[in-house]
Amino acid sequence: MWKILCGIVVLVTIVVNQLAEARGVRRRRGLTLQLDNYLSYDGIMQYLDELALSHSSRVTLKDVGRTYENRALKMAMITNGDGRPGKRVIFLDAALHSREWMTPAAALLTIHKLVVEFAENSDLLTDYDWHIMPLANPDGYEYSRNTERYWRNTRTPNGGNCFGTNLNRNFAVDWNVGFPELKDPCDENYAGSSPFSEVEARTVRDIMHSLVESKRAAVMYLSLHTANRSVL
């Protein structure tokens, strides 16, 4: 157990360091992962589709939901291809906060390390599969990239020309408890109309419930975030 945890820490450290140093495009065995610019939603989906085609024995894509603006929520399910049933699963998501553009890039590079650079990281897949959602809030991410750089939330209408829910505050534990701005539908910290009012939060919840019910839930759930100017 400690070996796999240490390996995960090393992998995440490598990913962060390589993203900080990356210039241009990374190539390995004909597959391209662009690191010099933050990919759009379409670019991320295209990379995942290409990866699933070129490494079909080790990665399968699953459409796990649809956002308010009808974008797909996709999860990459990664294995070493040994066919061993019932392996435990490490679950990772990224970009619940849409302005944290580094997190989808880090998730994609993690996928790249596990799949394309499998030989170097095969120990991380010996006893565990990985399920990774590299873009858990695509509506907000695209709005942040194209319209309002520091947009943080979903794009669900709240009425009164107010939009979006802070997905970190939309889970059931201590929902709407604490800061008054959690109840303001125009505030970036708005917790939503009810726990799990947002399809993105429900999707993360349902994935984890499914893993627990199937007894495949592993030792770790990782939700990638980056530093920003927020209070909450």
TrEMBL record:
SUPFAM superfamilies the record matches: Zn-dependent exopeptidases
- Domain Peptidase M14 as annotated: residue spans: 37-232
Molecular functions (GO terms): metallocarboxypeptidase activity; zinc ion binding
Keyword Endoplasmic reticulum found = no
Q: Which Gene3D superfamilies match?
A: Zn peptidases (3.40.630.10)
GO BP, one example? proteolysis
Give the signal sequence positions: 1-22
A Gene Ontology cellular component where this protein is annotated is:
extracellular space
Cofactor(s) for this UniProt protein: Zn(2+)
InterPro entries hit by this protein? Peptidase_M14 (IPR000834)
Q: What superkingdom does the record give?
A: Eukaryota
Family, as annotated: Belongs to the peptidase M14 family.
Give the protein's recorded name. GD13052
